[in-house]
Amino acid sequence: MMTIERLRSLSEANRQPEEFEAVVRVATCMATGGIAAGSAAVLDVLTNELRERQHVKVEIVRKGCIGMCRLDPLVDVFVSGQGKVTYVKMTPEKMQRVIEEHIFGGHVVDEYMLHLANGLILDDYVVLEG
Amino acid sequence: MSNFEKRLVVCDGTDCDAPNAEKNLVRVLRREVMKVGLADTVEIVHVGCLSLCEFEPLVISYPDGVVYSRVKATDAGELVRTHLVEHRTLERLLAQTNGLRTEQASSIDHIPFFSHQFRIALRNCGIIDPEKIQEYIARDGYQALAKVLTEMTPAEVVAKIKGSELRGRGGAGFPTGLKWELAAREESSQKFIICNADEGDPGAFMDRSVLESDPHSILEAMAIAGFALGASQGFIYVRAEYPVAVERLRLGIAQAHEYDLLGENIFGSGFSFDIDIRLGAGAFVCGEETALMNSIEGRRGMPNPKPPFPATSGLWQKPTVINNVETLANIPPIILRGASWFSSIGTERSKGTKVFALGGKINNVGLVEVPMGTTLRQVIFDIGGGIPKGKAFKAVQTGGPSGGCIPAQHLDVPIDYDSLTQLGSMMGSGGMIVMDENTCMVDVARFYLEFTKDESCGKCSPCRIGTLRMLEILDKITRGKGSMEDLDNLRDLSEQIQVASLCALGQTAPNPVLSTMQYFWDEYVAHVVEKRCPAGVCKSLVRYTINPDLCRGCGLCARECPVGAISGELKHVHVIHDDACIRCGNCAEVCNVDAVLRG
Amino acid sequence: MSEMIRFSIDGTEVEVTQGTTVLEAARQEGMRIPTLCYLKDVNSSSGCRLCLVEVGPKLIASCSLKAEPNMRVLTNTQKVREARRTVLELLLSNHKEECTICVRGGTCELQDLANELNVRKRRFNGKRVTAKLDDLSPSIVRDPEKCILCGRCVAMCSQVQTVSAIGLYKRGFETMVGPAFGKSLADSVCVNCGQCIVACPVGALSERENIDDVWNAIADPTKVVVAQTAPSIRVALGEEFGRPIGSRVTGKMVAALKLIGFDKVFDTDFGADLTIMEEGTELLNRLTSREHLPLMTSCCPGWVKFVEHNFPDLLGNLSTCKSPHQMEGALIKTYFAKKMGIRPEQIVVVSIMPCVAKKFERGREGMSRAGLDDVDYVLTTRELARMIKESGVDFLNLQDQEFDNPFGEGSGAGVIFGATGGVAEAALRTVFELVAGTELETVEYTSVRGGDGIKETTVVLPDGTTIRTAVIHGLGNARKVMDMVRQGEKSYEFIEVMACPGGCVTGGGQPIVNAQLRAEIDVKAARARSIYEEDRARPIRKSHKNPDIIRVYEEFLGHPNSHESHELLHTHYVKRCKF
Fold this sequence. Notes:
B: alpha/beta, Glutaredoxin, Rossmann fold, C: Ubiquitin-like (UB roll), 3 domains, 19 helices, globular
C-alpha cells in the first residue's frame, strides 16, 4: 500500500540532483509538437551514436512540451557541472554536430543556440534562397 | 551539415517591403565573398523577415552570432574583408552601435517568452518525463491526493476548491467548486467524474500538451474530485486524434495502479477510485457535456437539453461532474498551496492563471500561461514577440469558433472571463489567433462559420440549417454579390441562432460574425457597397491595376499572365483588363518595380 | 410523491404535479405552444426549437423543461415569436416544395405551422439537401428531401419499437434519417410496421401506394375485383372524412367500396374467425404435445418479421397460420371461385388494411399457390379514403350496405382482432368452448383488453389445462417479453403480439392524427372502444359459431388443421439477419 511516508521518500529519492551520475544528460520535447517538428529523428541520431560509443555515459530524457513550439525540436544538453545549454530548431544533421563538438568534444555549438535581438528570436529564419 | 564553415544570414528587407530594403545586397555579398576566395567556405543565405525592420537590412554571421544592421550594398566589400578575412568585427555596422540589443541565450529559460509567464497548470510540462511517475512524484506529485485522503473530509475539499474561486477552463467559466458541491450534495449510489479532453477549437492545444507532458496531474486531480464528490469511477474522454496523449494516459493509469495511487483503498483511507479512457472520434460537439456523455454511453454524440444538468443527472443518469483538463491541472496545487494562494492571483472575478495557445500572425507561436488580468498586449507583444514582418496588429481571435475578434483599441484590456465576454468574445479554451493588417475580417468570420457549420451535429434546426444559411450569405458577400439587406439578414439570423440553438455550439457559432460586424462594420460595407475587399484577400473582389507612374513597359507581367489579360507595347505603360483577369496575382509577383497595385 | 408545483405562465399562476413539463402545463391551461419534434410518449428531444419559451434571460424548449417552483414562463413575447418564426423559416428553406402534390397535403404539420406562425415570405434561400427517393420497400417510401429531421420516426423505430432500422447518419446540414450506410429500407431490419409514417409530421415517410394498380384492375372488364376489409378500417375511415376519432362507418365503407367499383366486398372478420379455428386447434394440439410452447400469434406481419430478424430461435413457436386476410384471399381464389364458377386468374383480391406491413406480407414466399397470389394488392385506410375522394363519392351521406356473401359474416370475435388483446380473447372464447363442450357464460375476457403494453391472464380449461397468456402490443414490449421467455424468466402457453402500439386500430396504415391531437386524445382507446361496441352488437360472438365458417369446413376444408387447410391456410418462416 502507498503511504505518505513512502510517497515522501519516493519524492526525495527522485529529485533531480545538480550533479547526476551520467556525464551528459540530453533532453528533448517528445510531445506531439516536438514529434511533429522532428524531435524523434533527432533523438534517433543520438541513440544510434551512443550505441556505438559506450565510453561516455549519456542519459536521454524525453520530456513534454515547454510551450516554445516555434523553436522545436529543442534539445537541452546538460554536461555535468556546466549547466544547461539549449539548442533550437534541431535536425539530425545538427544533432550529429552537437554530439561531436559538444557532447564528446566539450565545445558548445554557438550557432545552434538561441540568438536574440531586442528580445526577438533570430534563429527560426525562413530561408528564401541560399 | 554542408561543407561551409560560415554562414551569413541576410534579411534585406525585401520580404516585407521594409522602407530601407536593399535588393542587391545578397548578390553583392556573394560577389564580394567570391572575390576574396571564400565562396566555398562561406554560405550566403537570404531569409525572410525577422521582424526587426527598422534595423534592416540585417546580416547575421554564424557561428559567431555577430549581428550587423542597416547594411547597404555599398558596405558589402568592407564587411566581407573585415569580418571574414581579417576576423575583426566591423564596429560601424555592429547592431549594438545602432541601438539593437543582441544576445546569445545559453538556455531557453532566460528569454522574455518565459520570464512573463506564471505556470500552475503547466508546472511540470517540459520539465519532467511524462512517462515516469517517479518524476511526477519528485515534484510533489500525489502529495495533494495524500493530503486530501488522510487529512480532509470531502466537504473540506469542496470548500477549498470553492474558496480558490477556480472557474472552468473549458469555455464557459462555471465555478468549479460550485459544480463539485452540486454533485456532492446529490444522494446516489454511484457518481462519476469525467475529464473532458475533447479539445476541439482550431488552434488550441493546451489540453493535449498537459495530457502528454504531465498526465499524472490529471489523474491525481480526478481522484481528488472523486473523493470530494463520492465518485469511485472516472472517465477521461479524449479524442482519438491525440494518440500520444492516450498512450501516456494509459501508461499513467497503469503506473498509478502499480503505486497504489489508483484502485482500492488508496492511502489506506478506504477510498477507492479508478479511471477509464474513452476515445472520441473527433466531433467538435462532443466537447459539449451532454453530447460527450451520450458519446460515452455509446450513442450518437448529440447534446441534450439542460436542465437536467449533469450534476444531478449525468452519465447513465447519475450525478456527474465534467471538468476540463486545464481546470483539473490546477487542482493539486490549490490543495497543496491553499485556496487563498490561488485566489490571490488574477483579477476580481477570475482567479489564477490561464493557458493560451498563440497562433496566427505572431512570432512566438506556442503555449503560454499567464495570470488572469494580463493584458492582450502583454501576451501578444511581450510574450508572443509581436507580429511577424513588422506588420500592424489588426485583431486577435479568442475563444475559438465560439469566440470573437478583438480589435487593436482593446489591446490593453486585462484578460479575464468577463472582460472578454464584454468585448463580444469569450475566454473559451484559450486559443488566441492573431491577425495582421492583411487579414480580411469577413473572410475570418467565414472561416470560423465554415468550421461550426461542418461541426454542427444536426440535431437542432437553427444550428443545422442556420449556420449554413449564414455561411451562404458570407460567401455571397466575399464574392461581391452581397447587399445591405444581406447584412441585415445575417445579423438577424446570427442573433436568432444565438438564442434559439439547443447547445453552446449553436448558441456561440454566430459570435465570430457578430464581433467582426461590431468592430469591422466598414469592412463588411466595403464588400457589399463598394464591392471591395480592403485587405485584398477576397479573390473575387481584388482588382489588379498598373500604376502608370511606375510602369516601365518591360512587358514581363504581360508574358507571365496566364490568360493574356495584360496588354501594352514595349516601353509603354501596360494595362490589365479586369474582365479577363482571373486574380492570380502573377503580375504583382513578377513586377520588378512594384507597379502592379492590388486592392 | 406527487408534489404540486406553482409557477406562472404569461402571468397566470399555474399549479401542476411535479415532473410536469412546461408544455404540458401550458396545454392544460389551454395555451397553445407550437411543437414539431415533440410527440407525446415518443419524442421530446427538443431539437426543432419551435416550442421555445422565455424563462429569465433564456429561451428554453418547453417540451423537455420540467416546471419548477416560482418559475416565470413567457410564451408570447417578441423574442419568442421571432425565434420561432426564424426557426420555421429555416426549416422551410431546406424543405422540398411539393406541397400541392404531396401525399400529406392537408395533414402536414409543417404547413400548418407555417400558416399558424404567419410565415409569408422566404427570407433564406440556399442549398437544399439532395437525396434519392427510397421506394424499394413494398411497404414504405422515404423521401429524405422532405425530411425535417424532427427525429420522431427515429424515436418511434428505435425506442418504442426497438427495431432500429432507421437512425441519424452524417452530421450537420448533411444529417439524414435512414438505415445505416445509406441503404434502402428494403435491405434493412425494418419490419414495415409503418409507425414511422404515422409519426412523421410531413411527407418524408408514406406508404407505397397501390391505388393506380387497383384502379387499373377495376377498369379491366375481364377481372372480378374483390375487396376485403380488416376490422380496424371501419372505426377509422370516417376520420378521413371529418368524423371524430373512432367513429364507426362500417355500412358506409361497404357502400363506398361498391360504388367505386369493387365487384364484391367481403369482411376480413371472416378470415379472422378462420384463423381462430386453425390457430385454436393448433394451440390445443401443442398443449397436448407440449411442443413449441408458447404458441405465438402470426396475424401481424410486422411481428413475424421482427421474430425472423431478432429471435430466429423462436420461429418454431410462431403459429403456422397465415394472417386472416391471407387466409381469406386463399379461400376467395379457391372456394369462392369454384362456388361462383370463376377462374381464379380472373379474380383480383384487394385487402384494405390498417397496415403497411401487409403490403410486404402479400409478397412473401408461401403466400401464393400455383403462381397465384392469395392477395393481389393491399391498400391502407388512407389509400382507400383517397380513392373514395377521387371518385367523388359523398361518403358521409351514403346509405349503409352489407358485406357480400359467402364471406360477409364475421363474428364479434373476428372484429376484436383490430384491438390489442383481440386475437387472444377470440381464441380463448373458442378454445374454452371446444374443450368444455358447453357455452361460455361471459364471453368477455377483459383482462386482455386495454392500453397496457404487456398484459397477462391465466385461463384454466375445464380439463384442467392452464393457458398462461401474454398479450403484447408494441415491439419494444415484445422484445422485453421475448428476452424473458428466452432466459426462462417467464413461461406462457400463448402469446399474442401486435407490432403497433395499440394494435391494428393504430396501425401504420391508419389515418394520420397530428401530434397535437395525439397528445389530447387516446387514439387507440377511442378506436378500440368502437371495435368492442361492434363486437357487442354482433349476434354471433364466437368464431366457431359463425355459420359461414361452419359451412366452409363442411363444404371445403373438412376440419381445422386438415390437409386442405394446411395447403391453403398455413405458411412457414425464414431466419433473417440481425442487421
